[in-house]
Write a structure and sequence with these properties.
The chain has nine helices and eight strands. By secondary structure, the chain is α/β, with parallel strands linked by helices.
């Protein structure tokens, strides 16, 4: 059975130069009248649901206001992406093109909201590369997102939803931990703020410095 490959988004596939944080700060200022509300809040490897809930509670607002902030964030995101520029990380497009030729489908396992993921990847022309995924709309726990992503991608390509056949590719120790907790394998990619050594220490079975060596990346992702 072909592997179920599930990619993280931010600093794994793309760098948005802070567009997500900018849009979220604008959303919080609109909804709860607090400027720079996310200052000091870590985003790496976390889910949008967890981040929004933490910031609301930090500023004395109930988590029940999540939907208001979510909707404002999604409204501000396209302009923030346009302003900040950003890029598809080196080697990503050739890798995705090659994987689409080799596999019936590839997927996402991301803490981004589904619509946020669509807008970010759509901005860079990558959204249509993915058949299915797990997203941060419903779960703060990334391992549950990975489990949902396995189910969704397996259904999309018509194979059993076996975690042992799934590989999660991400740039943070939290991506690695979520993969392992869901019974999947983890491939770390040192394209974000964590080193190869830190990703290995987190339990990644393989670690890549990036995706510019296409042959090596394909060997790791397709060869287990």
């Amino acid at each position: 059975m072909p592997p179920l490959l599930l990619f993280d988004i931010d600093l794994t596939l793309i760098a948005t130069s802070g567009a997500g944080r900018t849009a979220l700060d604008r959303a919080f200022e609109q909804v709860i009248a607090v400027p720079a509300a996310t200052e000091g809040v870590r985003f790496d490897g976390r889910t949008d649901r967890a981040i929004i809930t933490e910031v609301l509670e930090r500023h004395g607002h109930p988590a029940a206001r999540f939907a208001e902030v979510r909707d404002a964030y999604l409204a501000h995101l396209p302009a923030a992406l346009a302003e900040k520029g950003g890029q598809v990380l080196p080697g990503v497009k050739p890798l995705l093109d090659a994987l689409q030729r080799e596999l019936p489908g590839i997927g996402l396992a991301t803490g981004n909201l589904r619509e946020g993921a669509r807008r970010k990847l759509g901005h860079f022309g990558l959204w249509d590369c993915f058949a299915a995924g797990g997203f941060g709309d419903d779960h703060a726990d990334r391992s549950r997102i990975v489990a949902a992503a396995i189910d969704a991608l397996a259904a999309a390509v018509g194979v059993p939803a076996d975690p042992a056949s799934a590989v999660v590719i991400g740039d943070t120790p939290l991506d690695v931990a979520a993969a392992l907790a869901a019974g999947a394998r983890a491939v770390g990619v040192a394209t974000g703020r964590y080193t190869e050594a830190e990703l290995r220490a987190a339990g990644a079975g393989h670690v890549l410095p990036g995706f510019t060596d296409l042959d090596r990346a394909l060997a790791v992702l397709l060869g287990g």
